[in-house]
Structures are given as C-alpha cells and as structure tokens.
Automatic annotation (TrEMBL):
GO MF annotation, one: isomerase activity
Compartments it resides in: Cytoplasm
Protein name: Xylose isomerase
Source superkingdom: Bacteria
Gene: xylA
Cofactor comment text: Binds 2 magnesium ions per subunit.
InterPro entries: Xyl_isomerase-like_sf, Xylose_isom_bac, Xylose_isomerase
Active-site residue numbers: H100, D103
Keyword Magnesium appears in the UniProt entry: yes
Keywords: Carbohydrate metabolism, Cytoplasm, Isomerase, Magnesium, Metal-binding, Xylose metabolism
Record has Thylakoid as a keyword: no
Reactions this protein catalyses: alpha-D-xylose = alpha-D-xylulofuranose
Family statement: Belongs to the xylose isomerase family.
Length: 436
C-alpha cells in the first residue's frame, strides 16, 4: 500500500520538448547507446543517506525538513522510511540503491541491540527487493558520525575502537552479501588526523592496512563476489585524510598488497576538493587498473567545501563518462547520486525533481561521451600523438631491453634532433564542444 508521500507513482519519459518537471526529457532507459540500454550503461543508484536520513542540517543551522519518519529513534520510523524509500526507487525506475547501516536503523545504545534492529530492516529490504526488482549497488558502514569515531575507526589509538569498527564492517558486509549487493565501500571519514602533535602516522597506516586486509580476507571467506572499494577524499571532516585522492589510495593499496583486491569509488566533489577534475581521477584509476564506481554530485565552486549538490553541468559529466566508456564501462559499479537537495527545498516533489534532473544530465553526458568515442576523432588524435612508441625499437625500450647508454648512443649516432609538435589543446576543446 502506498504511503502517499510522493505526488506520482512513476516518472515517465516524455522527451526533450516536455515541460513537465516530474518527467524525464533525456533519460529513456531503453534507448540503445554503444550496444547497451541506457539504463545498463548508467546503472543509477539512489543514496539512502542524503535522500532519507538528511534532515536539512548545515554547520550553522538545525534541521529544516519535516519527514514523517524523523527522528531516527524507533523501528516504526525506520520501517516507514524503508516504505517511502522503495516507493521513490520505483517511481524513478532506478535499478539500484546504496546505504550505510546508520541510515536505515536507529541507534539503540549497544552493538547487539543496534545489530538486531539493523538485521530486521535488512529482512524488510530483502522482501522489498524481491517485490520491486530494485537491487543493492553497494552497502557500507557509517564509521564517522558517532562520537566513538572522533579519532578514527581503523586508525584509532584505542584498539577497542578498532575492534568495534571491525565488528561493524563484518555486520554490514554480511548484510550486503545477503542482499546480493554488487559492491562494498569503505569511506574513511575520520581516517586521518587533526594535528600531528598527537598522531603516529606509521602506526595508523599499519592499522588501516590491516583492517582492509581483514575485510578482503573475510570477503573471500564468505564467498562475496562484489568489489571491495575505497572512496578517496582529501579532507573534511578530518584536516588530512589518508585516502586523499586516487594516486594516494593506490600507493596505500600497493604498500599493503591490495592493488589486485580493491578498487575505488570516485566522487566528483571529492576530486575537486583534492585539486583535481573528476575526469582526471577516473582516468587515473582506469590507467592504474583500480576503477570501480562513481558517486555523482557537484560542489559549489564558490563555497570551497563538499556541498554534495546534484549534477547539472553536462560538459563536466560528459568528460567523466567519456573515460568510463573508454575504459569499458562500469562492470559491477554504477552512478550513485551521493547528492542532497538544498535545505530550503522542503517538498517531497523536490526529492524527485532533483533526481530527475540529475538523471537527465547524466543521460545527456553519457550520450555525448558515446558520440565522441564513436566519432573517433578525439581518441584517434591521442593514439596518433603517441604512435612513435609503437615502433619495435621503442617497444623494446619500454620492455627494459635498452639501457641508458644504448639510447644515448642512438641519439648521437643518428643525429636525432626532435622538434616539438603542437598539442592542439584548443582544437580538442572545440572538438568536445561539438558533442556537448
């Protein structure tokens, strides 16, 4: 039975001429793009935390949203929240959703009581997945909100907090496995430091590496076939977080022997905070073989912090999907809307409208990216720019068969005097604009 919270039961595709704010203009899930349905290329997921747990708080003000399932202090409210959530997933026609443990159940004061409540909601989710066909893209544990995590979870100086974190992750990974989740994410919101005056970096690196190895070991023990993913972020809430960006996390994975076991969930807003572009982080993860999935949102470039707004910039989105498609697509990952409506957007329909606009933006961006790849000019230019490396000689250089003195002799004996060639940046930027 419907809760009646939303004004429509299903959002329809009406095409680009529609002026209906509760209809898709560009996202037609059955449209074929590069040999796949658009739904299967984009693999949309709704974030439970921002859509149903966020109360409209900001650093300077209290809650502005009044939802019938607030506050998060009872199982009755948690059950109602689940009903409303799956109604929205169904209305939007998204194939996936994501959640933290603390999003879906109340904190009942002890690990055992909260775990029991969590498992009851997981039972409800399992039934609703069977009923609706909506699946779990990934699960995760909230190891940052409660005061116990103020000095970190796996990196905490208190080993009992480390143990509590491990027990929480196990519970959440078990639930993700039971629900058929395709991935499991670890975001280290407090895995970092506020000051080096009270921090032992070497110890904390060892602890964090051991925890992630334990997670991987347990994944294999229970037969979980999803990806284990780490989500990079440079700071906020910690002054400095150890999972700063793709390159930093890759170095951590290599250091702890996990580069073949763990992939990355990359967020647009986190990429910007790290001083990068979204497409840079995606392209680097692809190059290093650790790309897993994305959190799609945007920051307000004037604010300088992680505002988690819904995407609306088609050119930015197109370049992100260009590198995803160029790398072969998502695999088990997808597009999770780690985004929240603004605290002045009070109405139920605002939740739908935000997701509709974001899904249309992503659809336009992905179709533009596909068109760039199918046109072939952009990837062809990059291939041609590096084509000299395809010769037998320079392939032998890369293979370690040529020494430094041998390559120096080649330059001198053959009188090599290379002339710089244009990188054609402006031409390529104009080329991209033809498609977006």
């Amino acid at each position: 039975m419907s809760t009646g919270f939303f004004p429509v039961e299903r959002v329809a595709f009406e095409g680009p001429d529609s002026t209906n704010p509760l209809a898709f203009r560009h996202y037609n899930p059955d449209e074929m793009v590069m040999g796949k349905r658009l739904e299967d290329q984009l693999r949309f997921a709704v974030a439970y935390w921002h859509s149903f747990a966020y109360e409209g708080l900001d650093p300077f003000g209290g809650a502005t949203f009044q939802r019938p399932w607030f506050p998060n202090d009872s199982m009755d409210n948690a059950r109602l929240k689940a009903d409303v959530a799956f109604e929205m997933f169904t209305a939007l026609g998204v194939p996936f959703y994501c959640f933290h443990d603390a999003d879906i159940r109340p904190d009942l004061g002890s690990f055992t009581a909260s775990k029991k409540a969590y498992e009851e909601i997981i039972d409800i989710f399992a039934a609703k997945q069977d009923e609706t066909g909506v699946c779990l893209l990934w699960g995760t544990a909230n190891l940052f909100s409660h005061r116990r995590w103020m000095a970190g979870a796996s990196t905490n100086p208190d080993p009992e907090v480390f143990a509590y974190a491990g027990a929480t992750i196990k519970t959440c990974l078990d639930a993700t496995h039971r629900l058929g989740g395709q991935n499991y994410v670890l975001w280290g919101g407090r895995e970092g430091y506020e000051t080096l005056l009270n921090t032992d970096l070497a110890r904390e690196d060892q602890q964090m590496g051991r925890m992630l190895n334990m997670v991987v070991e347990y994944k294999h023990k229970i037969g979980f076939t999803g990806q284990i993913m780490v989500e990079p972020k440079p700071q906020e809430p910690s002054k400095h977080q150890y999972d700063f960006d793709v390159a930093t996390v890759y170095g951590f994975l290599k250091r702890h022997g996990l580069e073949d076991e763990v992939t990355l969930n990359i967020e647009q807003g986190h990429a910007i905070l790290a001083g990068h572009s979204f497409e840079h982080e995606i392209a680097l993860a692809q190059a290093l073989g650790v790309f897993g999935s994305i959190d799609m949102n945007r920051n307000d470039y004037q604010s300088g912090w992680d505002t988690d707004q819904f995407p609306n910039n088609v050119p930015e989105v197109a370049l992100a999907y260009y590198h995803i498609l160029k790398g072969g697509g998502f695999g088990q990952g997808g597009t999770n809307f780690d985004a929240r409506i603004r605290r002045q957007s009070l109405d139920a329909e605002d939740l739908l409208i935000a997701h509709i606009g974001a899904m249309d933006t992503c659809a336009r961006g992905l179709k533009s990216a596909a068109a760039m790849l199918e046109d072939g000019t952009l990837p062809g230019y990059v291939d041609e720019r590096y084509s000299g490396w395809n010769s037998d000689y320079y392939q032998s250089v890369l293979a370690g068969k040529v020494s430094l003195d041998e390559i120096a002799a080649k330059v001198e004996n053959e009188g090599i005097e290379p002339e710089p060639r244009s990188g054609k940046q402006e031409y390529l930027e104009n080329l991209v604009n033809r498609f977006v």
